[in-house]
Design goal:
With about 425 residues, the protein is of the alpha/beta class. The longest helix has 19 residues. It starts with 10 loop residues before the first strand and ends with a helix. This is Glycosyltransferase family 4 protein.
Length: about 425
């Protein structure tokens, strides 16, 4: 195959078995990967569920409306069995018009949906791994580890891995996944995760007066921020339990815990612990506004307890120049490097101590925040990572002997203008 054939724009069809876009980490990653490929000159479209917002820039094609299904939070659901059948049909419909050079499937589910389409069209299939499917089901208490359904989920994962042409494996989950699954080395392409350094940046607190008023945050308090899914496996229960200890040492501290879906449950838990006056749970925060909300913080925290999926929120914290406390999971350490503040996994008291140490030392907070921002600029720019993903596409296409003809996206553009955005 001629190497110069790879210089033409590629048509990439992404399959996202999720209510895209719903202002959470998985969806941010899908958006940023797609956007990075547009900036590489490729044509990208996304096929997804009927629910979700449109963050702009990328054509979205949805399954028919399902009036009784409204779940936009993370986690498995039995409803996905028929949603994914609908997504398979929609993917095939769009693929026949779009004529993609390759399919880019997000999550194992997406690869299972895309596999028959890829075989029918004779195009490569890339699996974008954001974690373990069986691990996610356990984290969300959908199945028990070791149970029959768990073994079936792991078997399904292994089967999917054997049948895709390539796997995009994010560095922060590589170690934990490779301990559990055998990946064909020639099909694994490891890249670092990225962050939008223009969107996520430090803000001066004097420019955030509207948010202080909106949230009712006391200006005299130092603020510990969290932004992500609110659930037990993210360590929110553990974090709330140690807040009284933090307040005993630093009484002028406030906790801004942003995200969904269980904000009401945690609000009640904060009341039960007697800390409600020091905790604000505003619920879902729009991705476009996330950096300004994070800028309210003096310290950022992630108490996530699992290494079986990514922790992209860390990069948002880093890009905003926030000193960050997290458990010493391999992915966290790889992302934050020596500048992160770590506690042993599951040790809530140690986590509280690390937060208190930063709250008491403004100079150390400033130093760590600045170094984390520089680390993002050096290592986690989407421009460089997008080029790596594009090079992976080139390699996968070359292995299949697929040449890229002159770029064209007219078919999908016509579909969009005639109701393809349903």
């Amino acid at each position: 195959m001629e190497s110069e054939g790879m210089t033409s724009a590629k048509r990439v069809l992404m399959i996202a078995p999720t209510p895209y876009f719903s202002d959470r980490g998985c969806h941010v990653q899908i958006y940023e990967v797609a956007r990075s490929q547009q900036l590489q000159g490729n044509h990208v479209a996304i096929v997804t569920y009927h629910l979700g917002n449109d963050p702009g820039h990328i054509p979205i094609y949805r399954i028919p409306q399902i009036p009784w299904y409204h779940k936009r939070s993370a986690g498995p659901s039995w409803h996905k069995l028929y949603l994914d059948l609908l997504l398979l049909g929609r993917t095939l419909q769009i693929a026949r018009r779009y004529r993609p050079h390759l399919l880019h499937a997000h999550l194992h589910e997406g690869a299972a949906i895309a596999l028959p389409v890829a075989r029918l069209l004779n195009v490569p299939l890339v699996l974008d791994l954001q974690g373990s499917m069986a691990g996610e089901m356990v984290n969300h208490n959908f199945i028990r580890e070791g149970a029959r359904l768990y073994r079936l989920a792991e078997l399904t994962e292994r089967t999917i891995i054997r049948h895709v042409d390539a796997m995009l494996m994010w560095s922060y989950i590589r170690e934990s996944l490779q301990r559990r699954f055998d990946f064909p080395p020639d099909r694994v392409f490891e890249v670092d995760y990225g962050v939008d350094l223009e969107r996520f940046r430090p803000y001066a607190k004097e420019d955030l007066q509207d948010l202080y008023e909106e949230l009712g945050l006391p200006r005299e308090r130092q603020v510990v921020v969290y932004l992500g899914v609110l659930s037990a496996y993210q360590g929110i229960d553990l974090l709330l339990d140690v807040i009284p200890r933090i307040l005993a040492s630093c009484p002028d501290t406030h906790f801004l815990l942003m995200g969904y879906p269980d904000e009401e449950q945690y609000h009640a838990q904060a009341h039960a612990l007697g800390i409600a006056d020091h905790v604000t749970l505003p619920g879902r925060i729009a991705y476009q506004q996330a950096a300004r909300y994070l800028a309210l913080g003096d310290v950022a925290v992630s108490a996530k307890l699992t290494s079986m999926e990514g922790n992209g929120k860390l990069l948002n914290y880093m890009a905003c120049g926030l000193p960050t406390v997290a458990f010493d999971l391999p992915g966290n350490v790889a992302t934050l490097g020596e500048v992160g503040c770590y506690a042993p996994v599951g040790d809530g008291l140690a986590l509280a101590e690390r937060i208190v140490t930063l709250l008491r030392d403004p100079l150390e907070r400033k130093r760590r925040g600045q170094e984390l921002r520089r680390r993002c600029e050096d290592l986690y720019s989407w421009h460089a990572i997008g080029a790596q993903i594009n090079a992976m596409y080139d390699t996968v296409l070359a292995r299949r002997g697929i040449a890229i003809s002159s770029p064209s996206a007219h078919s999908v553009a016509r579909d969009s203008s005639s109701g393809g955005w349903n």
